[in-house]
Design goal:
This protein has 291 residues and is an alpha+beta fold. It is 22% helix and 23% strand.
Length: 291
């Protein structure tokens, strides 16, 4: 739990606060931008909740925080935040919340599908919490877990044990060492079923891969995200651990695929027409070539 003695002085006075253990992962600012903002290398509370809706969002951010850096002075029912996850984003795609410090607060997602369509898919691993596992179980459990890359695997072993799911990951990010059930290899895309395409995109890491669902949702891990400040798609030059040149080439591969949603592990979610997304992607590639 957050420590009131470590409360950052930049927080506005009042109930909710962020303490000095914050790692500036951005999760709270995405979930509750009305409450939290960035100040230097940390998030702070810049506006105290004034109604039930704002309080719920603040409690969701508290639950999602990977370092338990958000706290309150007053008592609140934690289940208001806990029971909000998984949170529906669009159609049958959900944000899991409960981000993990080991993944630096990366977001994970759940696709809810009938067993006849292949069952539910967990994209990257959230922090394991009994409450979250029970909620996912009530939605049908997990049949497949797609791990985009080695940075964001968090508690994948505990979720795999709980649900008996098949994990999918690329060999070049250590899948064999991790005991992954379906190991991807090489550079060619793989049809996991008639709705899911796994695409190896080396760059951020050597074995990074993304997942396309129904030619509509692109789960990008740390490969691609939306930038509100630049109002376009971006890659993270400063967080490219393997090869920027390889990541630029990998980005060009994605021009061949339709998608309307970008759902990253880090960075902002964005939705637009497939045509506009392709335009933004082409713009991102041209920018990458100049870095």
């Amino acid at each position: 739990m957050a420590n009131i003695a470590l409360r950052l002085p930049e927080n506005v006075a009042g109930d909710f606060f962020v303490d000095s253990t914050c790692i500036d992962c951005d999760a709270c600012r995405q979930i509750a931008p009305e409450i939290f903002s960035e100040d230097g290398d940390a998030s702070i509370v810049y506006h105290q909740p004034e109604n039930e809706t704002e309080t719920k969002l603040a409690l969701m951010a508290l639950v999602a925080c990977p370092t338990a850096s958000i706290g309150t002075v007053e008592h609140h029912d934690a289940h208001i935040g806990i029971d909000a996850f998984p949170l529906r984003i669009a159609d049958n795609v959900y944000f899991c919340g409960f981000t993990a410090e080991s993944s630096f607060g990366a977001w994970s997602y759940l696709i809810v599908r009938p067993a006849a369509r292949g069952g539910n898919v967990l994209i990257d691993s959230p922090r394991f919490a009994t409450q979250l596992a029970k909620r996912i179980e009530s939605l049908g459990g997990v049949r497949t877990m797609f791990l985009t890359h080695r940075d964001d695997i968090a508690d994948h072993q505990r979720f795999a044990k709980r649900f008996g799911c098949k994990r999918v990951m690329h060999a070049d990010d250590g899948a064999l060492r991790l005991g992954i059930e379906q190991v991807l290899s090489g550079a060619e895309p793989v049809d996991l079923d008639d709705e899911l395409i796994a695409i190896p995109v080396p760059g951020h890491t050597r074995g990074h891969a993304v997942l396309v669902y129904r030619k509509k949702f692109l789960f990008t891990g740390d490969h691609l995200a939306w930038s509100p400040s630049r109002n376009t798609l971006i890659a993270f030059r400063g967080a490219c651990w393997y090869s920027w040149e390889a990541q630029t080439r990998s980005m060009e591969k994605l021009l061949s695929y339709d998608f309307e949603w970008v759902l990253p592990g880090h960075g902002r979610i964005h939705q637009d027409s497939a045509e506009n997304m392709r335009t933004h992607l082409a713009r991102c590639i041209e920018w990458m070539k100049t870095r």
